[in-house]
């Protein structure tokens, strides 16, 4: 199947974070592609990627970047597709620099932004965006959300058992 989501990272050192998005998309059976592109080191490749993504069938772009974090904004400036930025925690400012860089886009160039290292939430948001026009994906999203509630219910049952053990000792 042709990829519907493109996961882009500024460097392969971002892969451990971005793998969380890949895992979620894989579990939801949403085809995706992964590339490393740098807004500063490969600007022509970034522009070509952004300008051709829609024609290749991409519906949402997830772009992770650290430090100056220009990648999501540069991509957003050259595509009509929704772009979700993932600020990557760096060594100096713990990702706050990347967060601010992605959040502070000029008018007309929006980038949805998730938490620092929040690649999984970016993938969930990508699914939610695509589910607006796809009943199969909407059902997957509903099932996923229902599963979250089940996890909490199970955790509460386990906590009740722990509490009971303390009362009997």
What does this structure look like?
- This protein has 169 residues and is an alpha/beta fold.
- Helices cover 50% and strands 15% of the residues.
- It contains six helices and five strands.
- It has helices at 15-27, 43-52, 71-76, 96-103, 119-131, 135-168; strands spanning 5-9, 32-36, 60-66, 83-88, 112-113.
- Helix 1 links the parallel strand 1 (5-9) and strand 2.
- Helix 1 (15-27) packs parallel to helix 5 (119-131).
- It is globular and about 65 Å long.
- The chain starts with a strand and ends with a helix.
- The mean pLDDT is 94.
Unreliable residue runs: none
The mean pLDDT is: 94
* Shape, per Cα inertia axes: globular
- Major sheet: order of its strands? 2-1-3-4-5
- State the order of secondary-structure elements, H for helix, E for strand: EHEHEHEHEHH
Rg value? 18 Å
Helix vs. strand class = alpha/beta
**Strand share of the residues?**
5-15%
List the helices and strands and how they pair.
Blueprint: E1 5-9, H1 15-27, E2 32-36, H2 43-52, E3 60-66, H3 71-76, E4 83-88, H4 96-103, E5 112-113, H5 119-131, H6 135-168
Parallel strand pairs: 1-2, 1-3, 3-4, 4-5
Provide the descriptors you would attach to this structure in a database record:
five-stranded parallel beta sheet; 5 strands; 169 residues; globular; alpha/beta
Kindly summarize this structure in a few lines.
The chain is of the alpha/beta class and 169 residues long. It has 6 helices and 5 strands.
